[in-house]
Amino acid sequence: MKDRGECSESERKGDWVEKQLVLDGLxxxxxxxxxxxxxxxxQIADSSETQVPxxxxxxxxxxxxxxxxxxxxQNMSVIVDTGSDLTWVQCEPCRSCYNQNGPLFKPSxxxxxxxxxxxxxxxxxxELGACGSDPSTSAxxxxxxxxxxxxxxxxxxxxxxxxxxGISVSNFVFGCGRNNKGLFGGASxxxxxxxxxxxxxxxxxxxxxxxxxxCLPSTDQAGASGSLVMGxxxxxxxxxxxxxxTRMLPNLQLSNFYILNLTGIDVGGVSLHxxxxxxxxxxxxxxxxxxISRLAPSVYKALKxxxxxxxxxxxxxxxxxxxxxxxxxxxxxxxxIPTISMYFxxxxxLNVDATGIFYLVKEDASRVCLALAxxxxxxxxxxxxxxxxxNQRVLYDAKLSQVGFAKEPCTFT
Length: 413
Known about the structure:
The chain has 5 helices and 27 strands. It has helices at residues 4-39, 121-125, 200-203, 205-208, 297-310; strands at 50-56, 65-71, 74-81, 88-90, 114-115, 142-146, 152-164, 167-181, 189-192, 211-215, 225-230, 244-247, 259-260, 262-267, 270-271, 284-286, 293-295, 316-317, 326-327, 340-344, 348-351, 358-360, 368-370, 372-374, 383-384, 392-397, 402-407. The strands form 5 sheets. The chain has a 6-stranded mixed β-barrel with strand order 2-3-9-4-8-7. The protein has a 4-stranded antiparallel β-sheet with strand order 15-14-20-21, covered by helices on one side.
């Protein structure tokens, strides 16, 4: 029996986790709004390679994943987000900042930091860059990013030396956040791994060749570590199946997202019988910044029905936030969980790890939920979140416009 201290700690965790899932829903809604608004490479002779630990964000009170990067001489712990472009951190002095683990970035103490001025060609060429009410030669290049779920960051753009796994990249453009609020937990900020010219991948293209990959650890224990690999450093991969590739779908209106052609889903080896177009309305977005995958209502309904056919005889439990299919598994030492596999154009497949199928709401297993959710509309674009990407090597090759998947137990050595 747990004492009161342990119970209250569990309840506190439940509170912030539920809030994170609510915010995850808002995050997905903002992506869909962005889609609605938008829709109404050179060869590298030699490239460097490096890897860094990638950890669960549990100790930062976020369900996203964290890496540490160097800015100047300071280390910053940031959320890894393939659905965003601008890399930013909270800066001192800060007008309105959330509480983060560790000190804020201090540009005034970094000799390598340079503010971007609003009248510079750099500012004028950046989509986010803007001059405020004082477009003088000394005014800074301001930015504002609204994530649509109530989260935002604003401040000025600057240039700094980026340190990553022992490799240094000069003249890295990032956001020095002075007003920040949202679902960032205690992280220092966010690493934008999207596809625009401002993303980390584009800015480091000459160094890493436009290729990166990650392996997201499955455990919710703080300190568990996978890896983020910059460059095509296949020698450090520990994949137990070959990497199978699928092409990125071109979409001029949504060119910053990684969009794939999802062609089918199996549950327990049985294919879902739904219209092929339902699997992806113009494709599905692969997004490490979304937690729970979202499927079209018809696909989710079919998946849920097929899952319940194969996972029957267990008492139900109340839904949890965006998760509506839950069970009470108290007293069951072992259960057989139906497998879930997603198939993509080109015979690539993502076999969802067992830890990415159920979300453990209660530590005593009295509430365990299917870790997938439905979109609100049949014509919205599906999203594959980080929970279903656990224990996979997911490789992004912007140069060849393809994404690869392989099974891999995620550890960092």
